[in-house]
Amino acid sequence: TWTSSAGTFTYGTSTVGFAASGTLTTPGAADTEYIYNMTVNASVTVTLGARTSLSNILTLNGTLTGAFTFQLFARNQANPLVLGGGSSITGISGLIWGDSNTVGYNIPSGSYPDTTVRYVTGTLLGTTTISQLVFNAGAILNTGNNTLTVNGVLQLGAFDSAGSLNAGSSSVTV
């Protein structure tokens, strides 16, 4: 178990690593970056104990779960999410990609919970299944000619911010 109040942690350079299953607890404020890098080893389950944001790279070889949102700020990092074999993101209330990334994101092939992409271009790297997908605040989704399945709502734009979809020759199922 890791809590943001237990010990010394240098934001901007540190990696929080999980070699055993446990709970990740941060103060939980929206749009606040708490972790720089995070690694979850194979066969390890990390349960979110609060809303959590990361500013560089999440390397997930195990499972990320919990009833909270996980946000990938990943400033100027094209590959903020690295998925190993046997990894899964399940049971979290949402996955948010974005906030002022100037290089855009590569979204690994996989299955995702409710997902929001904002302020950036996201490019699918393979077949992708998402519960619900919202692209807003000028975000662009490039399918990279890969198959996209959205099992709920596909929303391009929210409130007063448009989003767009470049499907190319992809199969998109909603």
What series of H and E elements makes up the topology? EEEEEEEEEEEEEEEEEEEEEE
Task: Please state the average pLDDT score.
Answer: 86
Distance between the termini: 38 Å
Strand content: over 45%
The helix content is under 10%
Task: Report the total helices.
Answer: 0
Describe the structure.
The chain is mostly beta strands and about 170 residues long. It contains no helices and 22 strands. The protein has strands at about 1-5, 15-20, 20-25, 35-40, 45-50, 50-60, 65, 70, 80-85, 90, 95-100, 105, 110, 115-120, 120-125, 130, 135, 140, 150, 155, 165, 170-174. Strands 2, 4, 6, 8, 9, 11, 14, 17 and 20 form a nine-stranded parallel beta sheet that branches. Strands 1-3-5-7-10 form a five-stranded parallel beta sheet, with no helix packed on it.
Strand and helix layout:
Blueprint: E1 2-3, E2 15-18, E3 22-25, E4 35-40, E5 45-48, E6 52-60, E7 63-65, E8 69-72, E9 81-83, E10 88-89, E11 94-98, E12 105-107, E13 110-112, E14 115-118, E15 121-124, E16 128-130, E17 133-136, E18 140-142, E19 148-150, E20 154-156, E21 164-166, E22 172-173
Parallel strand pairs: 1-3, 2-4, 3-5, 4-6, 5-7, 6-8, 6-9, 7-10, 8-11, 11-14, 12-15, 13-16, 14-17, 15-18, 16-19, 17-20, 18-21, 19-22
Keywords:
globular; about 0% helix; five-stranded parallel sheet; about 45% strand; mainly beta; nine-stranded parallel sheet; about 170 residues
